[in-house]
Amino acid sequence: MSFANIGIIGAGSWGTALALLLHGNGIRITMWGHDAGHVADIAASRENKVCLPGVALPESLRLTPELGDLRDCDLLLVVTPSKAIREVAARLSASGVRDGAVLLSCTKGVERGSGLRMSEVIAEHFPNHPLAVLSGPSHAEEVARKMPTCVVLGSSDAAIAQKLQRAFTAPFFRAYTSDDIAGVELGGALKNIFALAAGASDGLGLGDNAKAALVTRALVELGRLGTALGGKRDTFMGLSGVGDLMVTCFSRHSRNRAVGERLGKGERLADIVASMQMVAEGVPTTYSAFECARKFGVETPIIDQVKAILDGAVAPAAAMARLLGRDPKPE
Predict the structure, then answer these.
(1) From CA 119, how far away is CA 185, in angstroms rounded?
(2) What are the residues facing 30 on neighbouring strands?
(3) d(CA 246, CA 50)
(4) How far apart are CA 108 and CA 222, in angstroms?
(5) What digits encode the pLDDT tens for the residues 129-172?
(6) Which one of 74, 172, 245, 276 is most buried, by most CB atoms within 10 A?
(7) Cβ count within 10 A of residue 297
(8) Could you give the C-alpha distances from 148 to 39, 138, 139, 141, 162, in angstroms and in order?
(9) What is the pLDDT of residues 227-283, one digit of tens each?
(10) How far apart are CA 157 and CA 291, in angstroms?
């Protein structure tokens, strides 16, 4: 038995791309957006001009600004910015959700203050519903255009993982499964911080050697903090780890890498954020990860320097010099 009626909570680029993928598999899709004007524009033009321009949406893909329209869905994808997860989950719970509906978190982040992963925030509002997560190297711009992509679905229930896998499988889209929910989520969240650093390296013109070294040490740091927070080390060697780290540190589609590059070129963070229509999750996640590292006593030199850059406490060039100037030690 497959999912028959799926709700997409979030009308950004990733929500739109996932809606297209699942709609292409013959599933009834309803996509919700918080901005009624934006939703109306998408519905009228059959194009998400703000977040995913140039990609046509089928007439049968339903759009709504009302969470209540998702009551009959048997699968709900939560694809909102991390800072909105708690509010949206509370509103969704209040609006009513079908008994037994599966909630799938597709947002990459860690809540500041609590240190909770996105699925843990959702679980507080849906304690009796099955929860799963999706992550991996999957830029919306490429998924929407049916370019080859692999992701990983994390669930503690093997039957639900397999059901999700069937729903997401397409000729261009391959989904693996994992029982390591924490690792899948943390790999997808933490890599955004390191993409900021990689972008800063690009902005400073430090070259390929420096960037390769930075990304390699980022993987070590990701694994160190990720395991302290409950993930399995092997997970970070997979799609939601090294795979996601590579794509977000090197891709022209990566918002986090682009923000880092602009920082490296001397722009102010406030000006960069003000100029963007979409969220670079690495910025808030840097602060969440920094707090978690202090709580668990984990050494995170790259995260520390990224935070210092975001705070304006150190220039990107000086931050890179600090990383290179650390005491020599075995790899």
Answers:
(1) 8
(2) 7, 62
(3) 26
(4) 14
(5) 999 999 999 999 999 999 999 999 999 999 999 999 999 999 99
(6) 245
(7) 7
(8) 28, 9, 11, 12, 20
(9) 999 999 999 999 999 999 999 999 999 999 999 999 999 999 999 999 998 888 999
(10) 31
The residues annotated with a catalytic role in the active site are 191
* Domain architecture of the chain: domains with CATH: 5-179 (3.40.50.720), 182-324 (1.10.1040.10)
- Say whether 177 sits in a helix, a strand or coil: strand
Cα 306 to Cα 314: distance, rounded to the nearest angstrom? 9
Task: Give the predicted TM-score (pTM) of the model.
Answer: 0.95
What DSSP assignment string belongs to 22-76? HHHTT-EEEEE-S-HHHHHHHHHHTB-TTTSTT-B--TTSEEES-GGGGTT-SEE
Distance CA 17, CA 9 (A): 12
5-9 vs 75-78, strand pairing mode:
parallel
Six-digit token string for 93: 């719970």
Distance CA 32, CA 226 (A): 32
Residue type, 298: V
